[in-house]
């Protein structure tokens, strides 16, 4: 077990390649995103007892009733967010453990991420620093209000689900910008893409997904 954890087993290049191939087979086409998944050490974002599952394509618990997203979902949302070109400034709602944040970071000049659960944010901050991602700005707040002082954003990605897209997020989307978010009820949602063109918002509904809920208020 120790040997595997140190890198020649479950965290090896072969293990990561297997995950990438699986995502490709499941429809992820953007090789830049697959590279980012390959290069992101997902085992560092979860507790050691679960590390043997780090490169499985599944969501895993990260405490406080939250989960690290499934790699396929992270890849799919990233692919959708950058489909029209790399966004300059991106807002992420739901930092969680920081895994999606790390995958996203190479694709934008400025990345802002909001999390409502303080201990998760503190851990994410440590990991992002360890991985050299000090450029990511983190805020402990209710992401339903976006991040007004830094708006507008070319890309907005939410990793938590709600029945409706908060107006605060739509209004902080730049002209020509794109928002990606799971929209729906508690049990299942649809990955939804909104493209802003002036005052028009064009919506596409894509894949069925399952996320934790987009909650209100903050937790210390
Ligand atoms: N992006 C993470 C997924 C985290 S799960 C990953 O890479 O794995 C979704 C996260 O959204 C949780 O940490 C949850 O606390 C957070 N969240 C839910 N509602 C929120 C809100 N209103 N504002 C900010 N974060 C929220």
Strand content: 25-35%
Spans of at least 5 consecutive residues with low confidence: 1-7
* Spatial strand arrangement across the major sheet: 5-4-3-6-7-8-9
Tell me what the CATH architecture of the domain at 60-209 is. 3-Layer(aba) Sandwich
Question: What's the structural blueprint in terms of helices and strands?
Answer:
Layout: H1 2-8, H2 13-25, H3 31-39, E1 60-63, E2 66-68, H4 71-81, E3 89-93, H5 99-104, E4 110-115, H6 118-130, E5 137-140, E6 153-158, H7 167-171, E7 173-184, E8 189-197, E9 200-209
Helix pairs in contact: 2-3
The structure holds S-adenosyl-L-homocysteine.
Residues 66-69, 93-94, 96-97, 99-100, 114-117, 120, 142-144, 159-160, 212, 214-215 line the site of S-adenosyl-L-homocysteine (SAH).
Q: Describe it for me?
A:
It is a single chain. The protein is α/β, with parallel strands linked by helices and 220 residues long. The chain has a domain at 60-209: Rossmann fold (3-Layer(aba) Sandwich), CATH 3.40.50. The chain has seven helices and nine strands, in the order αααββαβαβαββαβββ. It has helices spanning 2-8, 13-25, 31-39, 71-81, 99-104, 118-130, 167-171, and strands spanning 60-63, 66-68, 89-93, 110-115, 137-140, 153-158, 173-184, 189-197, 200-209. A seven-stranded mixed beta sheet has the order 5-4-3-6-7-8-9. It has a two-stranded antiparallel sheet with strand order 1-2. α2 runs antiparallel to α3 (31-39). The longest helix has 13 residues, at 13-25. The radius of gyration is 16 Å and the shape is globular. The N and C termini lie far apart (35 Å). The model is unreliable at 1-7 (pLDDT under 50). Bound molecules: S-adenosyl-L-homocysteine. Residues 66-69, 93-94, 96-97, 99-100, 114-117, 120, 142-144, 159-160, 212, 214-215 line the site of S-adenosyl-L-homocysteine.
């Amino acid at each position: 077990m120790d040997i595997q954890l140190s890198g020649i087993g479950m965290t090896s290049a072969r293990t990561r390649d297997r995950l990438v191939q699986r995502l490709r087979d499941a429809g992820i086409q953007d090789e830049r995103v697959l590279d980012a998944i390959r290069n992101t050490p997902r085992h560092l974002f979860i507790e050691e007892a679960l590390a043997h599952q780090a490169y499985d394509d599944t969501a895993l618990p990260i405490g406080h009733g939250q989960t690290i997203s499934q790699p396929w979902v992270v890849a799919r949302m990233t692919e959708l967010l950058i489909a029209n070109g790399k966004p300059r400034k991106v807002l992420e709602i739901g930092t969680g453990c920081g895994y999606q944040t790390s995958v996203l970071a190479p694709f934008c000049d400025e990345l802002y991420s909001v999390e409502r659960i303080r201990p998760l944010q503190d851990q994410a901050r440590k990991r992002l620093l360890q991985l050299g991602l000090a450029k990511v700005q983190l805020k402990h707040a209710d992401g339903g209000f976006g991040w007004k002082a830094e708006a507008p954003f070319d890309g907005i990605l939410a990793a938590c689900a709600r029945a409706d897209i908060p107006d605060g997020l739509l209004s902080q989307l730049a002209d020509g910008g794109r928002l990606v978010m799971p929209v729906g009820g508690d049990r299942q949602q649809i990955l939804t893409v909104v493209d802003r063109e002036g005052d028009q918002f064009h919506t596409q509904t894509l894949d069925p997904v399952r996320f934790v809920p987009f909650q209100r208020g903050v937790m210390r």
